[in-house]
Structures are given as C-alpha cells and as structure tokens.
Amino acid sequence: MKKIIIAIDGVSSGGKSTMAKDLARELGYIYVDSGAMYRAITLYALKNGLIKDKGVDTDTLKSKMDTISITFSFNPETGRPDTFLNGENVETIIRGMEVSGYVSKVSALDFVRKAVVVKLQEMGKEKGIVMDGRDIGTVVFPEAELKIYLTASLEVRARRRMEELIAKGTPSSYEEVLENLISRDALDMNRTESPLRKADDAIVLDNSDMTIEEQKKWLLEQYKRAAGK
Ligand code: DC
User: Fold this and answer.
1) Residue 12 CB–ligand 1 contact under 6 Å
2) What are the pLDDT digits (tens) for 49-80?
C-alpha cells in the first residue's frame, strides 16, 4: 500500500497519542507528538525565566527561538519517543502540571507556531507518518490522506489524564486536572493562530465509550480505506 500521512487532531487528553503511537507501530510509520514540541518550548521559557505573572516575555523568547533544539529518540521501554530539549531528556517534566499550565499561552504565539510548523512539515516530507496535535489536518498537512478528529467527554478525559499522571509518579487532584482541561480547551479553540477545529474532511471519533482495542480496529479500517485508494 502507498505511504500516507495520517493526521490525528482533537482536544487535550482525548487519547490521540495512544491511538497515533499504536497505529504507527502497527504500520511501521514514524510517530510524531507535535504537542511535545510546544511543551518543550514552554519548558525552555520557564527554565529561562521568560514566563512571569504578567505573561510570556515574547521578545526574548522570539530572539532565542533559533537556539532551541528539540529532538526525539525512541524509548524501547515505553514504546514511544522521548523528547529532548537542547540535548536533555525532558519527557517526564514536560508532561507535568507546571508546563501544562502554561503551554496553551506559549503555543498561541504566532512565531512559536510558525517555527514548529516548519519542523513538523519537514518530518513528514517522506510520508509514512502519524502525527497528532491540534492543527495537523488543518495547517501542517492540509493534504493528509487520512484525518481523524478525536473527542471524548470532559469527565472521561480528566480521568485518563489523572491515571497518566499517577503512572508518571506526579499525581494531581481531579479538580486541578479538570480545571486545566477546561481552560486548555477554551484557549486551544479560541486562539487567533490556528485554533483547534475539525478539518472539513476529517472523520470524527468520540471514543468516550470505546476500549483501546475497539479504537485500534476502527483506526486500522480507516487507514486501509485511505491508503488503498
Ligand atoms: O497534545 P498536548 O496536550 O501535549 O499539547 C500541548 C499543548 O500544545 C496544547 O495545549 C495545545 C498545543 N498544541 C497546539 O497548539 N498545536 C499542536 N499541533 C499540538 C499541541
């Protein structure tokens, strides 16, 4: 079958990365978690004192963009790529509540988005890629052969996120997780630059009541249809 680009967009903690990662492994495709790039840039800004109560020091961050290197390296233990910021493995810290609390602000900045989009497009040049995010089907790869828009109820997503944080050894309260999801949904959907929205040609999946196995089967069917065309 021909190599294609698979774009999986949707709300926070909707299960995009689980779906994307499993499909990539099954197909021998590259998996790219675009959110990790925005998270790593947010961590850079936090570490360098560029996020204060007033907001982000955009002038300094903009001037430093060329010095920020984000790379991925497959971790056989987790079966997914670890994220490296200027050579340092930051996979755990970028998933924590501090980065989660600021990432929507940083990812709303136009110069940040432009830099990330260029890198993501580069990664997909050869196709054979599954990428998840918010604007993959609309902005990064509008020509993707398969576009999925994933959604799930707020309660289901909060529960999943809590389990994820517990597994990572950084537990958080249900209220805090829920609040973070609500505010990120609002920021992601209402920002001026590439807001989260379903691409016109994306297939919607609400996975609130689906098992991972059911999702996998569904997604594989969508892939076969799209790649077989
Ligand atoms: O998928 P995630 O929760 O790790 O993404 C982190 C943040 O990055 C999320 O709040 C929105 C932003 N993001 C984005 O704006 N565009 C993408 N393609 C991916 C993520």
Assistant:
1) yes
2) 999 887 999 999 999 999 999 999 999 998 88
Amino acid at the residue 4:
I
Distance 229 CA to ligand 1 centre (A): 30
- Specify the residue with its C-alpha closest to ligand 1, atom 3: 12
For the Cβ of 157 lying below 6 angstroms from any atom of ligand 1, the answer is no
Q: Does ligand 1 have an atom closer than 6 angstroms to the CB of 14?
A: no
What would the 3-class secondary structure string for the chain be? Answer: CCCCEEEEEECCCCCHHHHHHHHHHHHCCEEEEHHHHHHHHHHHHHHCCCEECCEECHHHHHHHHHHCCEEEEEECCCCEEEEEECCEECCCHHHCHHHHHHHHHHHCCHHHHHHHHHHHHHHCCCCCEEEEECCHHHHHCCCCCEEEEEECCHHHHHHHHHHHHHHCCCCCCHHHHHHHHHHHHHHHHHCCCCCCCCCCCCEEEECCCCCHHHHHHHHHHHHHHHHCC
Indicate whether residue 161 lines ligand 1 (CB < 6 A).
Answer: no
pTM here is 0.93
The minimum-distance atom of ligand 1 relative to the CA of 120 is 18
Interior CA angle at 179 toward 177 and 185, to 5°?
100
Whose Cα sits closest to atom 11 in ligand 1? 104
